[in-house]
Write a structure and sequence with these properties.
Elements (H helix, E strand, L loop, with lengths): L1 H18 L5 E2 L4 E2 L5 E2 L4 E4 L15 E10 L12 E2 L3 E4 L3 E9 L4 E6 L12 E6 L2 E8 L5 E6 L11 E6 L30 H16 L5 H24 L4 H31 L1
Parallel strand pairs: 1-11, 5-8, 7-13
Antiparallel strand pairs: 2-3, 3-4, 4-10, 5-6, 8-11, 9-10, 9-12, 12-13
Helix pairs in contact: 2-3
Length: about 280
C-alpha cells in the first residue's frame, strides 16, 4: 500500500508542471534569421522588422512612435458575436513614421498582429508580423511608407480574424474605412440573433407562383400539365430578357426580329435532318 502511494505521489509531482498555467513571458532574446525575421523556441516571432531603412519617397523619419497592443478574449466582450479582439481597433500615424509595436497576448493561445500591403522591396511578402503564444509579450519595429493608405491589421490564426480580432491602421488621412471592423465600420454581413423567419427567396416565390398557376389551369399531374409548367417557367425566365431586347423597338421591328429567330431555328432543324439522312444512307 505504501509503495502504491509513493508511486502515485511521484506521478503527481511529475505531472504538475504539465497542468500548471503558463507564466507570462517577455520575448526579448530572439534569434535573428535575417531579412527582419526573428524568433525563439518558446512561441515568439517577428517578421518584417525594419529599424533603419527608409521606404522610397521618405526623405527622413517623420516621427518615432511606440504603442502597446493587447490581444485577447476579454476585449471582445463589447462586440456581441465575437470571440477575440484587440484592445484598440483603429490607429493613425503620419507617413514615414517609425513605429515600435509592443504586442501583448493576454490569452493562453497563440495570437498575431499582422499588416499586409507594405512595399515588397522592403518588407518580405509585403508583411509586418508579430506573433506570440500567450500569455506573453513581443516587440517589433517598422517604418511606414509615404502616402495616404488604410491597412488591415489582424490575427491570421484560423477564425481569429473572422471572430473579431482585426482593426485598421491609417497612414496620413488613409483611403477610407475598411468594412467589418468592430466598433469602427458596418459589418458586410450583419449577424441576426432574432427568431424571425427568413424572407422567401425569389426562386422560391417563382416556383410557388408556377405551382399555383398550374393548379388553376389543369389541376392534375398529366403530361400536359408538365409541359404547361415548363412553358410557364421558361416564359417567366425569358420575359425580362425579351423586355430588355425589345425596348425601344416598334411593332414591325419586333415581328421581324422574331421571324428571323424562327427562320434560324428552322434552318438548324433542316440541317440536322439532312445530317441524319446522310448518316442513314451511309
Amino acid at each position: 500500500m505504501i509503495k502504491q502511494l509513493s508511486i502515485a505521489a511521484i506521478v503527481l509531482a511529475l505531472s504538475a508542471p504539465v497542468y500548471a498555467a503558463k507564466e507570462f513571458e517577455d520575448h526579448t532574446r530572439m534569434m535573428d534569421h535575417g531579412d527582419g525575421h526573428l524568433m525563439d523556441m518558446t512561441g515568439g516571432m517577428v517578421m518584417g522588422q525594419n529599424t533603419d531603412i527608409l521606404p522610397g519617397g521618405c526623405d527622413r523619419i517623420a516621427a518615432t512612435k511606440e504603442i502597446t497592443v493587447h490581444a485577447g478574449h476579454k476585449y471582445s466582450e463589447k462586440f456581441p458575436g465575437t470571440m477575440f479582439a484587440f484592445d484598440v481597433q483603429e490607429y493613425q500615424f503620419e507617413p514615414c513614421t517609425k513605429l515600435t509595436v509592443n504586442f501583448v497576448n493576454d490569452d493562453d493561445v497563440r495570437h498575431q498582429w499582422m499588416m499586409h500591403g507594405l512595399p515588397r522591396y522592403l518588407y518580405p511578402k509585403g508583411m509586418f508580423h508579430l506573433e506570440v503564444t500567450g500569455p506573453g509579450k513581443i516587440s517589433g519595429t517598422l517604418i511606414f511608407p509615404p502616402g495616404d493608405k488604410t491597412y488591415l491589421v489582424h490575427c491570421d490564426i484560423a477564425q481569429h480574424m473572422e471572430k473579431g480580432m482585426k482593426g485598421q491602421l491609417k497612414i496620413g488621412k488613409g483611403d477610407g474605412d475598411l468594412p467589418s471592423i468592430p466598433g469602427v465600420s458596418a459589418y458586410v454581413i450583419q449577424d441576426d440573433y432574432s427568431d424571425s423567419k427568413p424572407e422567401e427567396s425569389l426562386a422560391d416565390a417563382v416556383v410557388e407562383e408556377i405551382n399555383q398557376m398550374k393548379n388553376k389551369v389543369v389541376g392534375n399531374d398529366s403530361f400536359f400539365s408538365g409541359l404547361t409548367v415548363i412553358g410557364l417557367a421558361i416564359g417567366l425566365l425569358v420575359a425580362p430578357l425579351l423586355a430588355r431586347k425589345f425596348k425601344g423597338m416598334g411593332t414591325g421591328e419586333v415581328i421581324a426580329y422574331i421571324l428571323d429567330l424562327v427562320k434560324e431555328a428552322i434552318d438548324i432543324i433542316i440541317k440536322a435532318i439532312n445530317g441524319l439522312i446522310g448518316l442513314v444512307k451511309k
